[in-house]
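Quick sanity check, Tryptophan synthase beta chain:
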Amino acid sequence: MNSNHGFFDRFGGKYVAEVLKRPLDELEEAFRHFSRDPKFSAELQEIRRDYIGRETPLLFAPRATEHLGGAQIYIKLEGLANTGAHKINNAIGQVLLAKYMGKKRIIAETGAGQHGVATAAACAKLGLDCTVYMGEVDVRRQQPNVAAMELYGAKVRSVTSGSRTLKDAVNEAMRDWASNPDSTHYVLGSALGPAPFPDIVRSFQSIIGEEVKAQCEERNIDVAAMIACVGGGSNSIGFFSPFLQQKSPRLIGVEAGGIGPKIGENACRMLGNASRESIIQGYKSRFLVDEDGNSLPTRSISAGLDYIGIGPQLAALGESGRIEFVSATDKEALEAVLFFAQKEGVLFALESAHAGAAAMKIAKEIPQDKAIVINMSGRGDKDVFITSPEFRPEEWKRFLQSELQRLNEQKDIHNAKLLGETANA
Ligand SMILES: *Cc1c(COP(=O)(O)O)cnc(C)c1O
């Protein structure tokens, strides 16, 4: 379901400075052209199969189903995609498009770092130069992802303006793009931002929903509800996309309920009454901002859902009622991580666990001959620095202390060696 000239009802649009209009128009034209090019499609399909590892499995979860006592539970294992989450679908699609457009250089923004990692990997795979903008605060908090980006050969630029987080990284990436529109493509990480990004990102993520549709038809699965977590909205809109024009199944988006309903305690843009309609970073949608447009504080245990904005198409579909929104708290997400790990041997990312938690709540309302499909947008290996301090804080503290000690001792040995070499010389 494409936008109407960049708009989804009254949301969306292309509210950018004049210098960015041309690269956005050029991108829109190139996307239209190459998405009909058989050579582009064939190359994308081959990379999806051999590099990303598509199609990803649709797993029946019998022990979870039995325990919850209602609908049959199925899990789309998107977290088995190379690099561990759905973000690679968009990164590969856009980097390949940029290559066909003759661009030599890729830039991206990243908050938690997952989109940066996916883009860095896609650039390494396709041989393009990669620079990732990341707020200084996030660079410090998300070192494992910074290390991964650098392993893939990307340059990580620490952004020191404003609050030194995602919002500032986006501004910096847009500034770079405006200065280098001919050589450079900006890979935006979710189904938001100025047109044509919401359409492009949805299109590359729709492979998730298309596979689910085919997998369910092939196995005669009668789907009553599909559930996905919603940060900016890319995994959910891709997962829901082939079903938007139909009345069923129910499509349920799950926002981060954080630690409570008050302002600053969560990241709910559709639920609650804290969000406002506004135009920020090039598009019109619902944002957690005050009346002057300044960001309100947000909170979630999952970095990927902790964001003030939501994709314009989701905002429109939430208002029209086609997509229902619910929330799951930090605590419920952690419980869902444990539940699916121990019942099914599947480790959900904390973001995806919000969808798992919502499924656990509604399974009983749905008859046993019908199914719920949960999108596990990512796997939870990346969350060990967050889940371990929650589940086993003392052991984790001792681990970190011993690691620090080991590194310091290594440094001492290294220094002693250097000293020894100088003495011998
Ligand atoms: C980034 C991320 C999300 C949230 O982003 P969307 O654009 O809403 O999909 C969800 N799950 C995982 C695993 C992520 O890395």
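Posting the structure with no commentary besides this: The longest helix spans residues 393-424.
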